[in-house]
Amino acid sequence: MKASSTVSRMVSTRAAACRKGLTWAAVIAVGFALSACAATPSDTREDRLLKLADDVDQRGDHATAAAMYERALEQGAPSADLLIRLGNARLAAGEPEAAAQAFRTALADDIDLAPALLGLGTAQLRLGEPQGALRSLSRAAPKLDNVAAWSRLGAAQALAGHSDRSVEAFARAARLEPQDLDVQANLALAESLAGDDAKAIVDMRRVANSPLAEARHYRNLILVLVLGGQREEARRIEIPDLPAARRESLIASAARIAALPSAAARAQALGMARTSPARE
Known about the structure:
Blueprint: H1 2-20, H2 24-29, H3 41-58, H4 62-75, H5 80-92, H6 96-107, H7 114-126, H8 130-144, H9 147-159, H10 163-176, H11 181-193, H12 197-208, H13 215-227, H14 231-236, H15 244-258, H16 263-269
Helix pairs in contact: 3-4, 4-5, 5-6, 5-7, 6-7, 7-8, 7-9, 8-9, 9-10, 9-11, 10-11, 11-12, 11-13, 12-13, 13-15
């Protein structure tokens, strides 16, 4: 009976310590009964698993990383941060539907969680759901105020047929990264879709004239010129290491895009859904 009374007192002391956060001196006074207040081995294993998953994800094996994040979710209580990591890995692995589900689960407890809204909007873009993407990204972009958010909102606006609003969003992204040629090229394409051909051509020439310009930037210059009705200029413009046959193929492709009946259709043909990377 005396032993039973002693155990009861130890359990009561342990519970009180965990609730009140006793100092280490007090913890030592009640001995091992307070061990539940410390980190458990399973917590350590979960931390190691998450670190390994992050490393695998950064090395580019996104599918394996996603499987590891799912395992971590099974081992512990779901967290929004972990669900967002899972969603981003699924996006990078080319699985937008599974990614969208992860982001929706993260939003269940906080519908205004901006990183999850950004991820969901990106997945919706990949799934061909511009209106849904527009709802998600319109809420995420002002909160995050970064290049990825504004660029994806710009893409959603373009795909939804809101060309002027698309230009506004891409302009916000361009102001944040004025030296990023891809961001500036996206703005020029948006201007072209909005019918501002003169500005689009000026902006795209500036990008193509940079010493850092790459083949994709020259292709975009041809595209903007053709969309602006300057096909002959697209034939004459000097572009390094571009065979004549390849140039004519690009011009023909741009002409087909220009002939599409709406700005939204042209945005779709331009691949606006993949305007910015899936990751921030």
